[in-house]
Design brief:
8 helices; Globin-like; single chain
């Protein structure tokens, strides 16, 4: 039976829940809300470090619900973030977990990037890697995508 009565909504909810479940498993969490915050935080940081054209290309590969929170609050006219340091990227992710002083921001970033590599076609990941600042490429899992 359909959850919403609209197959397109049911599909995106199912895909998003799959992504969250995989992230929870990778991070060894039992908290879906925490997984959502982690996915959203990393996706926003990634978005803010990419040129607008690449943001749009990546968004077209995401489940509709994930695409919605990926693009939430984003302005196409905005320039990518200037500070490309790994430290600031990790700090911005960690800021989304103010009640969790021992948050593993690097582990979260690596897990989300791995999730993207598993679900987004390789060609798109290679494009992201090509335009992502060098300091941030280190967070992609060791694979044949590493440049």
């Amino acid at each position: 039976m359909s959850m919403t009565g609209l197959p397109v909504f049911d599909t995106t909810i199912q895909k998003t829940n799959l992504w969250l479940s995989e992230l929870m498993e990778d991070m060894q969490w039992d908290n879906r809300q925490k997984a959502y915050h982690a996915l959203r935080a990393v996706m926003h940081q990634l978005r803010d470090h990419l040129p607008p054209a690449e943001v749009m290309h990546l968004s077209s590969q995401l489940p509709m619900l994930v695409r919605g929170f990926f693009l939430e609050g984003w302005r196409m006219s905005a320039k990518p973030t200037r500070d490309h340091s790994a430290e600031s990227f990790l700090a911005a992710v960690a800021e989304q977990f103010p009640k969790d002083a021992e948050v593993d921001a690097e582990g979260i970033v690596r897990a989300v990037f791995s999730l993207l590599a598993d679900h987004v076609p390789g060609g798109e990941i290679e494009k992201i890697m090509a335009v992502l600042p060098k300091q941030l490429r280190q967070f992609w899992m060791e694979s044949n995508l590493q440049t």
